[in-house]
Amino acid sequence: MNSVVIEFLGVKGLISPGEVSFLMNEVAGLFQSMRLNLVIKEELEYIRSVFSKGDTDKIGVEELKKLRRLLSIGGGRTARR
To answer: Which of 2, 29, 35, 54 yields a CA-CA distance of 20 to 30 A from 21?
Structure first.
């Protein structure tokens, strides 16, 4: 929907072609970051529980591996599809 409004403003000459391009890229980037940061409640609780330990020596290798998977780009549910 946002892209339609941006293109309409460009067609009407209310914003320049460069501004249309810039805004389209910004909107696409926002939606991409929102899509990549999907974390379900259980995953968020797990992340909080591991970081709440405070002392990094108390975090095990398997916990670190799971954290790495959850926190990587597209790590949560998107990577398991």
So the answer is: 35
Tokens at residue 10, please? 């460009």
Q: In order along the chain (81 residues), what is the average pLDDT of each group of 10 residues? A: 82 92 85 65 85 80 86 52 39
Residue 30's closest CA among 10, 1, 69? 1
| C-alpha closest to that of 1 among 21, 22, 31 | 31
Q: How far apart are CA 32 and CA 77, in angstroms?
A: 15
Angle between helix axes 17-36 and 2-11 (nearest 10 degrees) is 180
Model confidence pTM above 0.85? no
Structure tokens at 13: 């000459």
pLDDT at 55: 76
Q: End-to-end CA distance of the chain: give it in Å, rounded.
A: 26
Q: Domain locations in the chain? A: 2-36, 41-80
